Amino acid sequence: MAAPKKAVAKDQGQEKGTGSPPEFTREQDLKALRDMLLIRRFEEKAGQLYGMGAIGGFAISTSGRKPSSSACR
Questions:
Q1: What is the Cα Rg of the chain in Å?
Q2: Is the pLDDT assigned to residue 25 strictly greater than 90?
Q3: Distance in angstroms (rounded) separating the CA atoms of residues 23 and 8
Q4: Residue 15: pLDDT above 80?
Q5: Element at 32 (helix H, strand E)
Q6: Domain-embedded: residue 13
């Protein structure tokens, strides 16, 4: 699951819509990194098994697009 955005209070001087990027806690950053690494390991293994013919169908890899695929979780 993607890390939820940290709510920024208006009394901290930042208002919604100012164009500044959302701020994340260290824990949220680490969770997003773990999610991306898990997705990478899964896709590498799935690609290996697909290449060996162990799984059928077709495979579409999101290799190189981990931030977008983890954000969609």
A1: 17
A2: yes
A3: 8
A4: no
A5: helix 26-52
A6: no
Question: How many residues comprise the chain?
Answer: 73
pTM of full prediction above 0.90: no
Report yes or no on 67 lying in a domain.
Answer: yes
Residue that has been written with the tokens 């819509």 in this structure:
17
Within a domain: residue 60?
Answer: yes
Contact of 3 with 31, CB cutoff 8 Å: yes
Which residue segment(s) compose the domain that 52 sits in? 21-71
3-class state of residue 70 by DSSP:
helix
Number of compact structural domains in the chain: 1
Contact 69, 61 (CB under 8 A): no
What's phi and psi for 58, nearest 5 deg?
A: -130, 155
Q: Which amino acid, one-letter code, is at 14?
A: Q
